[in-house]
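Entry for the shared binder. Reason: the reviewer on the internal report wants the predicted structure included alongside the sequence.
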Amino acid sequence: MQPKIVKQWTTQTLPSDWFKPQQAYQKDTVHLEETVKAIISQIRKNGDKALIEFAERFDKTKLTLLTLKVSAEEIKEAYSKVTQLQIDALQFMKQRVETYQKQQLQTESHMDIDGITIKTVFCPLESVGCYVPGGQAAYPSTVVMTAVPAKIAGVKRIVVCSPSDAEGKVNALVLVASDICGVDEVYKVGGAQAIAALAYGTQTIKAVHKIVGPGSKYVTTAKILVSTDVAIDMPAGPSEVLILADETADPRLVAFDMVSQAEHGTDSVAGLITTSEQIAEAVQKYLAEITVSTERSEKISEALKKYGFIITCDDIEEMVKLSNQFAPEHLEIITKNANNLSEKLIAGLILLGPYSPVPLSDYASGTNHVLPTGTFAQSFSALGVFDFSRRVSIVECSKSGLEKTKNNIKILAEAENLPNHYKALAARFQ
């Protein structure tokens, strides 16, 4: 079953929260939070014992205190289970991400004004935990996206948590990617329990200073709940794509892009907003054709049925307004003047033109695919090297420079009834 075409939707005729039902992790929020709080509580109370129990319950695997952490032998064994082509592809992806992230670090702030020197330096965090989803599919690319920026920033301890299979093994490519990217520790822990372990620590897993990475609605909820005690990157997941298209778009390509996003899982969001009823109808037709014959069709069909949508608008302005209300994780613009249009739009990542699909940014562009979802793109950015750093301003002032500020400091200190602030300055000239 495919998403229905909803015609004549505008910002006037739609309810202001029209996009909320499309956010999978917002469904049954109260029950979801209660479930995740209970998991977090068990981890904080029972540590490793709870991790082992949850692994058996959720991952259907029996772990022990000795097998929670991935061993060097297991990583070596993982290389024998993957191909050289896969290793080369991971190396290629790592190089692209490194190049982009290093370029971002090249700008250093330095200012001299009236005897006051200010410079900003970036200090790496001591430790980070990278959550790498598993279960329905393995995501070695997420290892690259989270660990490489951390490594470039200079983080000393990089930890990966990823669920194991029924045999107690983490996906081989995830382990190979972890090794290639210089990850220090890998644990066979998934879901909300992994987030709790990274936040509060257990007998085996030492707590980290920040948790990053995408995940299910349980992982996202857990990150939000522990964020009062440990830093997180952003709410990231379930995944989303929104496509803006006019009459120049190829409906077949639009349909393929929606299907590719829907295959992430049954809670993935794939939407189209278009000014062309012909495009909307053609995309609907192609979705039906592609979904029937493709791999993972059952999951794709369910995702499109639950969280897929096609909206037609009268004009570009309405399309922009609706898109900005949604603030998607991935935004594809397949229209005339796409570059100019992009300047008006809000999204975690914007992809321009028919040759810039989401898979490009997932694997090869060098940009990060850990992105804010659920309208959080309105206030969060993609994961990057700055998320693994602390910005510190260093100020040095000469005596003459301080003297030039005396009068203004005196006025403001008195206005805020903090007379000793000025006395601390004046004492230097007595």
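Summary line for the report: DSSP finds 16 helices and 14 strands in the chain.
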